[in-house]
Specification:
mainly alpha, 6 helices
């Protein structure tokens, strides 16, 4: 039995959705790793605030990794689990050695800008494939992240 036999979706159209989910999974895995580094290495007067915020953000990214992988599986895809592949496929670049809050926040905001743009593209692909499950997932991510970007910008300009 295949899940796709019961979803009523066009498999060829869904393949492009799965391909985009694969890249988004790689993006989130690298972002997660970057956030862990910020959490561990942040220094300075904003340490307590940013240390806690980066933990919230990496926990959120880890949740999205699982949701994306499970969505891929539901659509007949196979999620990757090797960081060596994530590094090659991701549009998010690995970051290391960041200890300043302003630099970490800039990277986080830049990454959210990239992710939101990719999620919008994926939303459009999913809509074309009549894949409402992926549309809803991307819509939820975008709404959540737009609010988060607003809040991070408000914090960064204080």
């Amino acid at each position: 039995m295949k899940t796709m036999d019961y979803l009523g979706l066009n498999e060829p159209k869904v393949r492009s959705v799965v391909s985009s989910l694969k890249r988004l999974l790689a993006d989130y895995q690298i972002f997660y790793s970057n956030l862990r580094g910020f959490h561990w290495h942040i220094e300075g007067p904003d340490f307590f605030v940013l240390h806690a915020k980066f933990e919230d953000l990496y926990n959120n990214a880890a949740e999205k990794v699982d949701e994306i992988a499970e969505r891929m599986l539901a659509l007949g895809g196979m999620p990757e689990s090797r960081y060596s592949v994530y590094v090659k496929e991701s549009g998010v670049k690995e970051v290391t050695g960041v200890t300043k809050g302003s630099e970490a926040l800039k990277n986080v905001l830049d990454t959210y800008g990239y992710l939101i743009a990719e999620e919008r593209k994926l939303l459009a692909l999913a809509a074309e494939a009549e894949d409402e499950g992926t549309v809803a997932l991307m819509s939820d991510y975008i709404r959540e992240q737009e609010k988060l970007v607003w809040m991070l910008c408000a914090y960064a300009t204080r």
